[in-house]
Design goal:
The complex is a heterodimer of chains A (217) and B (408).
Chain A (H helix, E strand, L loop, with lengths): L6 H15 L1 E9 L10 E6 L10 E3 L1 E3 L2 E3 L2 E5 L2 E4 L8 E5 L6 E6 L7 E3 L3 E7 L6 E7 L3 E4 L5 E8 L1 E8 L12 E5 L5 E6 L20
Parallel strand pairs in A: 1-17, 3-7, 6-12
Antiparallel strand pairs in A: 1-14, 2-13, 2-15, 4-5, 7-10, 8-9, 8-11, 11-12, 15-16
Chain B lengths: L1 H15 L8 E13 L21 E15 L3 E9 L8 E10 L7 E10 L22 H9 L2 E10 L8 E11 L6 H5 L14 E2 L10 E2 L9 E10 L3 E9 L7 E2 L4 E2 L2 E12 L4 E14 L6 E16 L2 E12 L10 E13 L4 E14 H7 L4 E16 L5
Antiparallel strand pairs in B: 1-2, 1-20, 2-3, 3-4, 4-5, 5-6, 6-7, 7-10, 8-9, 10-11, 11-14, 12-13, 14-15, 15-16, 16-17, 17-18, 18-19, 19-20
The chains are: A mainly beta (217), B mainly beta (408).
Amino acid sequence: MTRRSDPIVGLVLLLVAAVPVMAGTLSVQANLADHGPFAGAVITVRGEASHAPAAPISAILDQINLAFVPDIVVVPVGSTVEFPNSDSVSHQIYSFSPTKRFQLPLYHGKPYPPVHFDQAGVVTLGCNIHDKMVGYIFVTDATYFGRTDAHGAWSVTNVPRGIYHVSLWHPLLRDSVASLERDVSVTSDEPAKTTLQLAQALRPAPLQASARSKDEY
Amino acid sequence: MKALHTLGIVSALWVAAPGIAWSTDWELSADMRLIDSDGQTSLFDGGLGTLRYDSDHEDVQVGRLRAALTQPLGDVWALKLDASYWGQDDAHPLGLTEAFLEYRPYPVDGWRTRVRIGGFYPPVSLEDTASGWSSPYTISNSALNSWIGEEIRTIGVEGSVEWLGTRLGHDFDLGATAGVFGWNDPAGVVVATGGFSLNDFQTPIGGYVGGRGSPVFPENQLFHEIDGHAGFYVGAQARYLDRVTFLALHYDNRANPEDEDFATDEYAWDTHFNSLGVRVDTESGWTAIVQWMAGTTSVAPEGDSYSWPFYAKFALISRQWGRSTLSARYDIFGVDSNADGDFGDEDGHAWTVAYIFNQSLHWRFALEWLHVTSEVASRAILLNEPTFARENQTQLSIRYTIGSDRLY
């Protein structure tokens, strides 16, 4: 018996084979003004045609040795963040950022439920007891997001073909965010790459909280 | 229904209560010294020396025994107490150097306010940033801040407001402070009659500086109200990121120099001064501080008017690496006098070199060498001794601390 190929099966097989071909990789390289790698920069990627925010997550922002750990948390809109205090001293967390205003009265451990972030934007966190503590929550409605590694690199795979809007943010940025936005075309042929080059030096990073001084003058 | 609602709130608070930390933070420390000194009799023993430890107080001495606590009272109020014993028989033995209620509401739209009520230091020192108003750079304070620790304390109310620019994407924070106080009318008597010294002593509230019954420099009570006039101060702070801090203060106790407390024989010393300073901290561990202060103190008993313009300034350079801090400071200070025989007139300068090793949160070891050169007119008048003196003090400090990791 000869086996005849079924045109419909053939079409399905062709489509299945084509699916990976329709997705690509998007790589971002972030460089400082001195052309060194920009580690820890927040990268967000939005599709131009169809915009689908990433699914909400539950994140944790700890407080260890009078510092927020990590110093920056990136979460999709609708996510929750928990703020445990692992120090033996009390903390009193607040944000007066319009994106999300909240306060967690003086506490140790983990007495409060997670805080819900339902609006995109930057939330600057402080401790009303330890004035030097500063942390950030970057709430994004982007489809893809992340932070650059030690080499200033970040990438995402399986990105459907299309035009994407890439942007960069960091709390110490002096460059305008608009000057670091790029439209990148993702095709199936080869990985899409873009380089975000800062024009200005970052603000100096806060000095490490040291045992020798308090927060006062 | 309303009762149920209330019950709901109460039970929610009950559930939340175990984690909410209204617990007391506290700290106890013992700082013992090994002293080598050729200093003249110190102010604290009724002399006119410029060091804390004179040649009669060598070998093992108590530096400071300290107990401090912070008791939150609700979410935004706290009671702060700082008590010390300084090991000096002839000074107020144990007392509160600071005791106040603090109100710290949450910042709103980048503005932070603070209110303090009680007894505390005005914002003047750029070096005394460690716990208990001590210096993280040296054992002995600069002449400027030694004087603040001896004579100046706010017993009153202070309000401050700060614009947190760095939280809003700017490079600066700006602040302003104003205080109203009483019970500091004798301030000025020590600098006018005893001159400046370099030490880490802080007069407890209700305490005194001087030697009890000394004919040269007797005990001077510092925290009394004599004329019923409130004093005030206004200050400004500016910070560039967390690297450069400016601090300015204008202080005036508004004492009536003609007033005298006949019961205690104390005068109201009309004292005002301005202070300006800057501190720079770098990422590589360097700190530089320059601070300047100048003012005048006056008394006018029975129609005679005497005034003593005074100034003190210092420059400090410090390098921290790991647990070690090495610091050097140069002080220059002086008092002018229009009194008979230039009584109280002084010119001096000092070099301080200190090495501090913070072994852990518990143990701190510090070694300091202090050299003071001073010309004090009263040494000839009161002691019939040369006005000029060179004094040297070397001290080793071993301090052990227990308690909460860090008080707030």
